[in-house]
Amino acid sequence: MSSYELFIGLRYTRAKQRTRFISVITLISIVGIVLGMTVLITVLSVMNGFQEEIRTRILGVASHVQISGAADRLAAWQPVAKQAMRNPQVEAAAPYVSAQGLLTYGSAVRGVFIRGIDPQLEALVEDVGNHMKRGSLAALTPGEFGIVLGIELARALGVTVGEKVVLVAPQGQVTPAGIVPRLKQFTVVGIFGVDHYEYDSGLAFVNIEDAQKLYRFGDAVSGVRLKLKDLFQSGAVVRELSQRLGPDFYLSDWTMQNANFFRAVQIEKRMMFLIVFLIIAVAAFNIISSLVMAVKDKQSDIAILRTLGAAPNSITKIFMVQGAIIGVFGTALGLLGGITLSLNVDVVVPFIEHLFGVRFLAKDVYYISELPSQLQMPDVVVTGVVALVLSLLATIYPSYRAAKVNPAEALRYE
C-alpha cells in the first residue's frame, strides 16, 4: 500500500461527511464493536471465574480421586491406600464412611449426608479444617459422638457448638414391637463454612469409628479418598490405579463426580460466546452500511482520482483503510473496556446491586453468592482477533464497489 492511499484513507476518516447520517452510522459501528467486545470479554471472564471458584470450593470438600468397594463397602482400606500411594501423583490417602440420615433438634428436621472421617488423615486430603467458623475437626474424638455441621445446616436447625442433636439412621433395627429406627445423640463440636451452599446446608462430619458403630460397618469403610499433586492428572491416575487394583474396585475423580456441572458451565460459556459474538457481527454490518454510503458520498472524489491515474486497486485500498480505522479504533476501545470491566467486576456489581436494590446471586439458588471474574489472555486475544477480522471483512464489499465507480458517470452532473 502506497503512502498516498494511506493518506487519503486517513483523511476520509477525519473529514466531515456531506450527509451527517453517515457519521452517525460510523459512530454506531464503533460503539457496537466496543460494547460487543466489552460484554464478550466480561462474560467470558465471569464464566472463567465462576468455574474456578466452584472448582476450588468443591475440591475443598470433595476428593481428587475416590476409591470404593462393592456395595460401597471396603473391608481393608490400608492395603488399598498403600497401593495408591505408589503412584507418584498421590500425596495422601484417607478412609471415609459415607451415609445418610436425619438430624433433629426440637421441631426442626433436616436430611443430611454423613461423612465419617479420621480427623488427622482427613486434614491431608481436604482443607475443611481451614474453613471452620467455630470449633475444630480435631474435636471429633472416637466414642465421644461429636459432630461438625455446615453453617447453613446449623442455622436451619437453630443449633450452635455445645448443643446436642439427634441423628436418625435410615437402617432400622428389628424389635418385638416392629422395626424401630436407630437414634443417636451427637454433640455439636464445630461448624464449618466453605461458601458452597450444597455442602454448607447438607453435610456433616463425625468420627469414622462413631459412623462405623452407628451404621454397623464393623471394621469396614466406604472407601479411600486421595489427594493428588496435580488435580488435572486425576484421569490418568484413575486409569493407572484401575489397572493396578483390578475390577473389584470402583474409582472416580473430581471431574466424574461433578461432570454434569462442569459440562453445563462449558456449554454455557460457548453459547454465551456465540450470542455476544453476534453483537460484534451486527457492528460489522454497520461498517458495511457506513462505507457503502461513504462511497456514494465520495463518488465525485473517486472519479477525480481515477482521471488522475489512480488504479482501481488503489481506490479499494483507500476505503479499506477507512473501514480498518473504524475496526481498529473500536477493537482497541473494546479491549480496554472489556479488560477494565473484567478486573473490576467485584466493585461494579455490588454498586449496581446497591443502586437498584437487587441481588443477582441468591445463596440458596446458586452455588456462590458473589460474582467472580478471572481474566484470561487467550479470551482477550481471540475476541480482539475476531472483532478485527470481522471489521476487515466488512470493508471488502464497499471497497470493491468504490473501485467499480465509472468516472464519466460520476462526473456527469457535477
Report on the structure:
- The chain has 414 residues and is of the alpha+beta class.
- It has 2 domains: 3-56 and 261-410, no CATH class; 63-257, no CATH class.
- The chain has helices at residues 3-14, 20-61, 77-85, 119-125, 151-157, 197-202, 208-214, 234-245, 254-257, 259-297, 299-307, 312-343, 345-356, 377-394, 396-403, 407-410; strands at 65-68, 90-105, 108-117, 132-135, 146-150, 164-175, 178-192, 203-207, 223-228, 250-253.
- It has a 6-stranded mixed beta barrel with strand order 2-3-8-5-7-6, surrounded by 4 helices.
- The model has no long low-confidence stretch (mean pLDDT 80).
Q: Tally the helices.
A: 16
Helix content: 55-70%
Mean pLDDT: 80
Class per helix and strand makeup: alpha+beta
Shape: elongated
Unreliably modeled segments: none
Count of extended strands = 10
Could you give the order of the helices and strands? HHEHEEHEEHEEHEHEHEHHHHHHHH
- Beta-strand portion reads 15-25%
End-to-end gap: 30 Å
Strand order of the largest sheet: 2-3-8-5-7-6
Radius of gyration: 32 Å
Largest sheet entry? 6 strands, mixed, barrel
